[in-house]
Amino acid sequence: MEVKNKIILALDVPTTRKAIEIMDNLSDNLNTVKIGYPLVLAEGLESVTRIKEEYGCRVICDFKVADIPATNEKIADATFKAGADALIVHGFVGEDSAASCLETATKHGGEIFLLTEMSHPGAAQFLQPVSMDIARMGVKMGIHNYVGPSTRLDRLKKIRNIIGEDSFLISPGVGVQGGDPQDTLEFANAIIVGRSIYLDNDPVNALNSIIDSIEL
Ligand code: 3DU
């Protein structure tokens, strides 16, 4: 997977119209976006279809899927039918639940990203003690793509060591949450950035500044 400029834009905006306005200005420098609940709950999965069609970019749906296998299958099926290329899936619910998403993704020619450890302070409370085991489970399952935190680089490094150099690791938490783009890219293949770009008065300049600050 080749992520242009190693940046995935998190499109956590309230309307498809706003997402389009942002993408009209930024799409030359991006080929991958992440769409999650903020946009899809407001505008429906149609927003995923629309962004995909309009820009031809890769769309990763961040639904942090964490249900029983039968329900995960339905969630994954609807997501890929809407045009998503990949789906972010929680690992803590166990192998059967993640496998259900993986099988459904494969059926649609799509991919999943296994979420290991999250980037916010609360991740230390329950998730952190099991996050390396989640990464190990992913390796055992043959999962290629992972999500890990840019806010704790010591942990991101450990995740990278577990999943190996050939796996694809993307990392949120850059910018507003405190993570540094270049430092994160020492361990991650691409960074996920949202508010530092779409909340800036000049999103084009914000994106360009991040691109200038990293080694491509
Ligand atoms: O903090 P930002 O605005 O740059 O957005 C980060 C995005 O990544 C946002 O969509 C959030 O829901 C997602 N994310 C995390 O921030 C942390 C995780 O561990 C997983 C996903």
From TrEMBL:
Gene for this chain: pyrF
Catalysed transformations (reactions): orotidine 5'-phosphate + H(+) = UMP + CO2
Transmembrane intervals: none
Domain of life from the UniProt record: Archaea
Known function: Catalyzes the decarboxylation of orotidine 5'-monophosphate (OMP) to uridine 5'-monophosphate (UMP).
Any one Gene Ontology BP term: 'de novo' pyrimidine nucleobase biosynthetic process
GO CC annotations on file: cytosol
Occurrences of domain Orotidine 5'-phosphate decarboxylase (ranges): 6-210
Pathway: Pyrimidine metabolism; UMP biosynthesis via de novo pathway; UMP from orotate: step 2/2
Identification of the protein by name: Orotidine 5'-phosphate decarboxylase
Organism: Methanobacterium subterraneum
Top-tier EC class: lyase
UniProt record similarity statement: Belongs to the OMP decarboxylase family. Type 1 subfamily.
Subunit structure, as described in the record: Homodimer.
Alphabetically ordered keywords of this record: Decarboxylase, Lyase, Pyrimidine biosynthesis
EC number of this enzyme: 4.1.1.23
Gene Ontology molecular function terms on file: orotidine-5'-phosphate decarboxylase activity
Binding residues annotated for substrate, in chain numbering: 12, 34, 62-71, 119, 172-182, 194-195
Active site: 62 (for ompdecase activity), 64 (proton donor), 64 (for ompdecase activity), 67 (for ompdecase activity)
